[in-house]
Amino acid sequence: YMKQRDLNSFLWTIRRDPPAYLFGTIHVPYTRVWDFVPQNSKAAFQASSSVYFELDLTNPSTISGLANCQLLPHGENLQDVLPQDLYHRLKRHLEYVRLMLPHWMTPDQRGKGLYADYLFNAIAGNWERKRPVWVMLMVNSLTETDIRSRGVPVLDLHLAQEAERMKKGTGAVERVEEQCHPLNGLNFSQVLFALNQTLLQHESLRAGSWQAPYTTEDLIKHYNCGDLNAVIFNHDSSQLPNFINTTLPPHEQVTAQEIDKYFRQELIYKRNERMGKRVMALLRENTDKSFFFAFGAGRTSMCFLLISTWDGIINFIF
Predict the structure, then answer these.
(1) CA distances from 121 to 98, 142, 178, 223, 278 (A)
(2) Residue 302 and residue 158: Cα distance in Å, rounded?
(3) CA 258 from centre of chain
(4) CA 220-305-271 angle, 5° bins
(5) Residue 30: pLDDT over 80
(6) pLDDT tens per residue across span 233-284
(7) In what order do the strands lie in the sheet with 11-14?
């Protein structure tokens, strides 16, 4: 690894008095990356009076709102809406995960009092009441690598907790429904395709016939090395799987491309524009405050481009 002072930072500064900063995070335990965050980023965080995130993850209403938006309407269960074969495959996979969890957990997790059953229920509890699209995302988070990272706050949550501890002003530029509704907006056939493809990938992973092309470990490595392009153009930018695969039949390739286009439009382009406008509004309405905006690294870079296009006042720091 490079020395910290030599690392590139995911930090942009907006030249104003007082200054404002955009900082790119990734959704991994902060302990895996914090030592590699350059000093200029930490100093910017320390110096800012207000810290803003995509969502306020320290607010209980945010957490309950996220949980509620994932539920099927009218008290329905997954068994009521999924094809029988898909439902049983999903159930078998979750049973496999439950059996493997004790073997995946680290001694450190067990030392902190985490139990496999507790961890499974924390992630997958109430899964039969969830909408299929959220179950798909849940399945993607039930891997050995992700399980081994549980119990440590992710980077943006760590920053939020630190901001509260330091009595900084905190806020969010998005509402829960703005993150939820686009995911819930996929049509049912697209959702079934996405869940089926996700299960196929994980079933192949279990059988040893498939290997994930880009892992969380890869993401951490590129982030710690300041490799902006590698971080932006992988799944963490939208936290969604990529279904485009040349081995799919033509009609399924069309479906995969439609889903990819929809997610890019709704969860990347529209969100970036909305968040960029809200950042600019906050800056214009609070000319006497210093701000530190902590967003996903891919999203931060796009907001940087939007803001620089609008005002021409932003400067990239290395």
Answers:
(1) 9, 11, 26, 30, 36
(2) 23
(3) 21
(4) 75
(5) yes
(6) 554 444 566 777 767 888 889 998 999 899 888 888 888 889 989 999 999 9
(7) 169-172, 50-53, 291-296, 20-25, 11-14, 314-316
Whether the CB-CB separation of 217 and 145 falls below 8 Å is answered with: yes
State the Rg of the chain over Cα: 20
pLDDT at 226: 81
Q: Identify the bridge partners of residue 296 per DSSP, sorted by sequence position.
A: 25
Residue 44: name the closest of 5, 12, 2, 4 by CA: 12
- Do 139 and 202 contact (CB within 8 A), yes or no? yes
Q: Give the pair of three-digit tokens for residue 66.
A: 């996220």
Q: Please tell me the distance from the alpha carbon of residue 168 to that of residue 83, in angstroms, as a whole number.
A: 50
What 3-state class would DSSP assign to 127? helix
The maximal CA–CA distance of the chain, rounded, in angstroms, is 61
- The whole-model pTM stands at 0.86
Which residues does 59 contact at the CB level (< 8 Å), separation at least 6? none
What is the token pair recorded at 296? 């996903």
User: What's 59's DSSP letter?
Assistant: -
Q: Does 111 have pLDDT greater than 70?
A: yes
C-beta separation of 196 from 255 below 8 A: no
Q: Which single residue is written with the structure tokens 């957490």?
A: 63
Q: What token pair was written down for 33?
A: 């990356």
